[in-house]
């Protein structure tokens, strides 16, 4: 059982929120629910999901140490209760248990909720709102190893997508005839792209299906726009009407700022398997990781932000002191700490250690943001299939990137007789409508009314706005910048920005691997393995833990 001190098992339940208060087809969603820009006449404002920092903004450099007042001892302390931190905790605990040893592992989370960007809220009337539209990619190799898919009660999307095109009432369909041969006629007749474009898709699909993940990441890297046009030869029409809205909804940035390697990797994941949604929302992923960590003896403490990390000095420090201030001041003493925060916070924590101050001078990797608008309504959805709907009219500068009806994918997202609509708004449009939630709501309704003409009246007058989320740090940038999140296999947990870390320090997070759920797990597993070896006094290099 984890603490704040957890008396009601609150993390194992989907959070309940009222409906009157205020990736993105992305991989994650964040969860701190401070309202930003709520209009006085609006029933629902834009909910900024910015989380608490693990450290204070001024680093509390002048705060006297209270370590001498009594510290709690732990063999391993993990700072950060997101997917990566939980994966590190699980991996370390399993490795230590298999070696028939007992070590005290403590995980500290600054916020009330665990899971970081993988979370959901449940309204009083029974709708599940993922904090930022997200899908569960079943073929992620590291995720498969750590999660019980059956327990998640996954339901799959249909392959492909539907696309709204200019001048057409009916939605166009993009299918995958290799996975569903019955769709071959629809694929050939689809107005999305030319016949030549459709022929050129085959070499791309064969390349990602026949290549290993390692081989795809060893290909020469360029931006995705260049790869699509120059390497694969797709037309501007096919790129702009399908690939652009699809990929920008995933990576939250223009094609020219996306990694071609990440495109190949994600395209392989979609080609090899399905996208899905868990019955209880994406928070089901977090809940399963939390329960697994606790069952292995990990002590989890929420609402415990770290204010400072100190060492005994030098690279061979024996003791690491972690000072925290939640409702009370607490201090933890350990020989091993895993920093499982985002890259910006990790730089602050490690940059405060003697000899590593220069880390704070390195520019932060850009963080990508996104918005998500949720509507609930009674009756049938405009789209009868569990499929994503894309805005193929990107030149019109309308706010909607994509639309999904999560309750059509997994009925657990809405009460019986009702449906839920999720609308992804990319950062440029969210900036345009900042502090104007009513105008954003009306713009989205008008756009959806034009897409689904038979439902226009209901969309404008009867659909209930449940919430508008703004996720300012939905994922780290995966192309360019000082530390792009496009590294397969996860970077070494003992090296950060090219500097070997002090003894006892380890780092993990999606910023250390790829900006995906798989990357977060992969990096956490690597750090968990390394910190377990350190705790067991097994050399990290060329060591094998007990199977």
Would you mind describing this structure in some detail?
- The chain has 547 residues and is of the alpha/beta class.
- It has 3 domains: 10-50 and 120-155 and 367-476, Alpha-Beta Complex (Polyamine Oxidase, Chain A, domain 2), CATH 3.90.660; 67-115 and 283-365 and 482-535, 3-Layer(bba) Sandwich (FAD/NAD(P)-binding domain), CATH 3.50.50; 177-273, protoporphyrinogen ix oxidase, domain 3 (Orthogonal Bundle).
- Helix content is 30%, strand content 21%.
- The chain contains 16 helices and 26 strands.
- Strands 2-3-23-19-22-21-20-11-12 form a 9-stranded mixed sheet, with helices on both faces. A 5-stranded parallel sheet has the order 14-6-5-18-26, sandwiched between helices. The chain has a 4-stranded mixed sheet with strand order 4-17-16-15, with no helix packed on it.
- It is globular.
For the report, how would you describe the main beta sheet? 9 strands, mixed
Mean pLDDT figure: 86
What would you call the shape? Answer: globular
Question: Can you count the beta strands?
Answer: 26
Strand content: 15-25%
- State the CATH class of the largest domain: Alpha Beta
Nutshell version of this structure?
The protein is an alpha/beta fold.
Write the layout of secondary structure elements.
Layout (H helix, E strand, L loop, with lengths): L14 E3 L16 E3 L9 E3 L23 E2 L2 E4 L3 H16 L6 E4 L11 E4 L4 E3 L5 E2 L3 H6 L2 H4 L2 E2 L4 E4 L7 E3 L9 H6 L5 H16 L2 H6 L5 H8 L4 H16 L8 H13 L2 E3 L5 H13 L3 E3 L4 E6 L8 E6 L3 E6 L2 E3 L3 H9 L15 E12 L10 E3 L8 E5 L1 H4 L8 E9 H6 L4 H15 L4 H6 L2 E13 L18 E2 L2 E2 L4 E3 L9 H19 L12
Parallel strand pairs: 1-7, 3-23, 4-17, 5-6, 5-18, 6-14, 11-20, 18-26
Antiparallel strand pairs: 2-3, 7-8, 9-13, 10-13, 11-12, 15-16, 16-17, 19-22, 19-23, 20-21, 21-22, 24-25
